[in-house]
Amino acid sequence: MKLRRDSAFRPDLRVRADFPLLVNNPDLHYLDSAATSQKPKVVLDALRDFYETANANPHRGAYSLSVRATEYYHLARVRIAQFLGVRDSDCLIFTRGTTEGVNLVAGSWGEANVLRGDEIVVTAMDHHANFVPWQILAMKKGAKFRICELTPDGRIDLGHFSGLLNDRTKIVAFNHVSNALGTINPIAEIIRLVREKTDAITVCDGAQSAPHFPVSFDSLGVDFYAFSGHKMLGPMGIGGLIGKREMLEEMPPYQTGGDMIEFVYDDRTTWNVLPHKFEAGTPNAANAVGLAAAVEYLDRIGMDRVLSHERALMSAAQKRLAAIEGLRIYGPPASERSGVVSFTMTDVHPHDLATILDGEGVCIRAGHHCAQPLMRRLDVPATARASFYVYNDESDIDALVSGIMKAREIFGYVPA
Amino acid sequence: MKLRRDSAFRPDLRVRADFPLLVNNPDLHYLDSAATSQKPKVVLDALRDFYETANANPHRGAYSLSVRATEYYHLARVRIAQFLGVRDSDCLIFTRGTTEGVNLVAGSWGEANVLRGDEIVVTAMDHHANFVPWQILAMKKGAKFRICELTPDGRIDLGHFSGLLNDRTKIVAFNHVSNALGTINPIAEIIRLVREKTDAITVCDGAQSAPHFPVSFDSLGVDFYAFSGHKMLGPMGIGGLIGKREMLEEMPPYQTGGDMIEFVYDDRTTWNVLPHKFEAGTPNAANAVGLAAAVEYLDRIGMDRVLSHERALMSAAQKRLAAIEGLRIYGPPASERSGVVSFTMTDVHPHDLATILDGEGVCIRAGHHCAQPLMRRLDVPATARASFYVYNDESDIDALVSGIMKAREIFGYVPA
Amino acid sequence: MILDHYRRPRNKGILDKADASVEMKNPLCGDEITLQVSFEGDSVCDLRFSGRGCSISQASASMMTQLVKGKSTEEIGAIRKQFRELMLGNTAAVDDAHLGSLRAFSGVARFPARVKCALLAWSALESALAERTS
Amino acid sequence: MILDHYRRPRNKGILDKADASVEMKNPLCGDEITLQVSFEGDSVCDLRFSGRGCSISQASASMMTQLVKGKSTEEIGAIRKQFRELMLGNTAAVDDAHLGSLRAFSGVARFPARVKCALLAWSALESALAERTS
Ligand SMILES: Cc1ncc(COP(=O)(O)O)c(C=O)c1O
Ligand SMILES: Cc1ncc(COP(=O)(O)O)c(C=O)c1O
Question: Domain B16-30+302-410, what architecture?
Fold first, then answer.
């Protein structure tokens, strides 16, 4: 994804009033959207509306209420598929979130196809959700687990990446955007290398891309794409895995139980068609409907505007933060990052910084960001991270910067 | 569970006004609570309140909002554990529902412990959720999959059950209450037999018991108990698996990713403590809070009263239905059933019945109730099922009966 | 109309000599149908169904057998397509005279669970035609 | 008070001869501590810590080393128990004079993620004592 360096971008969205939690807390500066986003009123209304007008077990009833529930659930799938550029909406499987999506691919495709001696490639910037399942799968199958190293500024080292690929490579997993650094990975280039050198499947962790810029699965070229609703204005506990139809059809089911079966005999079971084959048990229809309302809301803003708003905030934040002595920013240049900035400060531990900022009403994250392998490579135990979304504006950056200055004062920063 | 035959029971709860969907549809007779329940206003309010005042990613933040989210989530766990008689609340793992709970045990304990030649026992009345995962596990491991047959009136045939148990039996799975017949199984007797003849673990599907009468996991004696929030007035997409601590501690994780790890190295990973070890990824904290509000609501009514209310409805329904010529009821006597009545009618297919009843505003379920092995044994393709909960009253039974009479008329029932 | 075909199904039974025979089941409700077809050139010369199920699936099978008898595979394909449209809620299809008595099913479209019942016989016929060409 | 200990940690370094040495890490934030203890009879005769981390974990370690030096394992156990109470939000513990300077941490109880930082040194000490008795 090419991002313009246009400094004329302005953070022009003014939507804070749509978010009840932010309205209830006018002095709150929420800068942890990469962990989870706040929810607009329309999403909470959609949830409530489902429960008050359409609540029934989808797929199972022959009465109108259940028909309505089934329809709401189906339309939510179609709507979200459209948002993510999936023409064949049956290829969007609802999951609890990104973590479950990756586990599904590892537990189904991986279990069925990875053999001793095969190789699985991940990157050193991947979130534990797209790292540990592959590590465990590799250990279980006797496959080789290979980690692609990063450039000093936190990008995938494509040279190293290319060198890791060979005809035993079965799975290549990578995030679209790093939650810890904000790095936006060059998916087209990655896919090209993978296709050129392997028959591997590609698994893209889209937890940090789906919320922040236009994504079209059909043109992305990856075989699987996982995302989390709660990071894109939707409710908790809902997300999705998108897969290519031919893959999903040949894969064995993941969880089994009601709804995903066709016939259950004493000695064997046959499976339902997509997407049901991968959705065992009563679906979380209400939250799917809530997520559909979220993407509707994002589409109304326009994902291009979401992107430009965040880029404008990011470039402003970058300038202000870089000017603070003793503050070190990780990852590629701001113009090549998503709305995430990860940093450390001389003499102030990230945790202490977060606590002091909290006292100022500024919510940032401090820790390993579920990316311990990356932290080890950066040689820091933790970083502080601020992340932006549609409801943020310049006042959040002001509060962040003045909180940092205050922390520096408390901890008595002495220029070296 | 001993149930009194006391005919003096009266359906004395009058709580319909607490349920927005039922208030919005005053002529609706919702008799499909075994599929999913309606939600009281307090649950919808709790959900909304979480999103409007405490929404953040639990466990991950060092700021007050995230602390609040973590606390809400923790307190929800404690509250639900208390409701289900679990003193050690860390042994309650949040899942999407019963289906995921069973899959977790099969995928973790089962994967690690079942060997070729071992045996797994289920019953012929089990829901696909507590049947298919064991069948698949057995096939994968080369274990024997054994199905306990039922008595003609739809109870576990304890003689046959006992005969199935031996020292190769590794897992015994059974539902507490059958969703298709309403049969309440004699758990104490089952556990006694299992302990006497095997070292097997016991997995109890509590989807239909947790909502309907007092359950105490600690005194039930089973090793695992799975339940679904959406069937007990809670939101969709949340439920739980309760396990004995010593079991859960020795089991490998199920899904892997963020939050469930301790340290992630390039070549291995260590696990977090209970309950986190089994909760990979961002938890569905909002829905856990919603479910806590649901059990709070149930406790305020009192589970004894819930039980007596349903029993009163059931005995009234039983009398009225049994009086209809050509109507056949399946399962044990009403006095030994939970609030579920499954039946067929001469000359009216269950699906046609459901459609006609729907025209009268009566919601019942028609189909195999995710229990195809049972249907085959009953030698019917489908049954009609009405199920009761706290918000039902005699008017629902009136509507059910008069709808059935209408269907009979339309389909021109001719006494044989 | 539906009830009439349900109570007095047409073409129910078995053929002495069938060119194709297909058994099909709706997993959702357990409806079953066995369809036997004999051909003459490109046309369906005779067909019979047996099985059990709800009024929708049985009446749909009964009407289908009446409607397709003597028709060419192409004609049948067109009707099937229109009927499917009708079942998916495409109201324009209601006016298609080719559907004949099948238009009585238009109300079923409201119930996705029942749509499968209405389409069961047609799925069986599709399989039978495919069986023949292969 | 916390900042003072963070900036000028007491007993930071290594012992020449330690009876027990424990390394401990907080997975949440990466705080690390290595604790060395030497005993005399039933009492802790000397101890030193090293490592890196936030102000809370480092100051807590520093204060702990001051407070437990010369105390018996039983006395230490009592203090540890009280400190844990304080961290769990038991406000009564704030008045316990035995906690000495540790009472400065009472505000940390509000932040569960930080409580682990405060307890890290104490967990290490517990391990060290256990190592010795085993
Ligand atoms: C007895 C029984 N077990 C399991 C389930 C599956 O529950 P869920 O779909 O919530 O996972 C149900 C309900 O559908 C049930 O009634
Ligand atoms: C890049 C990335 N991948 C995966 C995840 C996991 O998502 P979830 O916790 O919603 O399953 C996250 C967020 O926590 C993330 O930022």
Answer: Alpha-Beta Complex (3.90)
Using CA atoms of A185, A189, A191, A192 in order, give the dihedral in degrees to the nearest 10: -170
Instruction: State how beta strands C43-52 and D20-25 pair.
Output: unpaired
Instruction: Verify whether the Cβ–Cβ distance A30 to B65 is below 8 Å.
Output: yes
| Of the candidates A309, A103, A63, A394, the residue with the CA atom closest to the CA atom of residue A226 | A103
Pairwise CA distance, residues A392 & A306, whole Å: 11
Q: Residue A299 in 3-state DSSP?
A: helix
Ordered domains of chain D (ranges, CATH) = 2-133 (3.90.1010.10)
Q: What is the CATH number of domain A44-299?
A: 3.40.640.10
Give how far D103 is from chain A: nearest CA, Å: 18
Rounded CA gap, A237 and B234, in Å?
Answer: 14
Helix (H, G, I), strand (E, B) or coil at B168: coil
| Residues A9-32 pLDDT 10s | 567 899 999 999 999 999 999 999
Fold matches, B16-30+302-410 and B44-299:
no
| D89 CB within 8 Å of a chain B CB | no
Average pLDDT of the residues in B268-287 = 97
- Spatial separation of the C-alpha atoms in residues A224 and A242, rounded to whole Å: 6
Query: D14 at the A interface (CB within 8 A)?
Result: no
pLDDT greater than 50 at residue B173: yes
CB contact at 8 A, B179 and B371: yes
Amino acid letter at C132? R
Q: Is residue C98's pLDDT more than 50?
A: yes
Task: Classify B216 as helix, strand or coil.
Answer: coil
Q: Taking CB atoms and an 8 Å limit, are A282 and B103 in contact across chains?
A: no
CA gap B179, A29 in Å, rounded: 49
List the domain boundaries for chain A: 16-30+302-410, 44-299
Cα distance between residue A170 and residue A119, in whole Å = 6
Name every chain A residue with its beta carbon within 8 A of the beta carbon of C114: 62
Separation CA A122–CA A138 (nearest Å): 11
pTM, whole model, 2 decimals? 0.94
Burial of A297 (0-12, 13-18, 19+ CB in 10 A): buried
Q: Which residues contact B237 (CB under 8 A, 6 or more apart)?
A: A96, A237, A238, A283, A284, A286, A287, B96, B97, B229, B230, B284, B287
In whole angstroms, give the CA distance from residue B282 to residue B61: 12
Integer Cα distance of B311 and B333 in angstroms: 12
CA–CA dist B235, A167 (Å, integer): 47
DSSP symbol at B185: P
**Which distant-in-sequence residues (6+ apart) come within 8 Å of B9 by Cβ?**
B308, B309, B311, B312, B315
CA distance A398 to A401: 5
In this prediction, does ipTM exceed 0.85? Answer: yes
Question: Torsions phi, psi of B180, nearest 5?
Answer: -90, -30
> Under an 8 A CB cutoff, do D113 and B62 touch?
yes
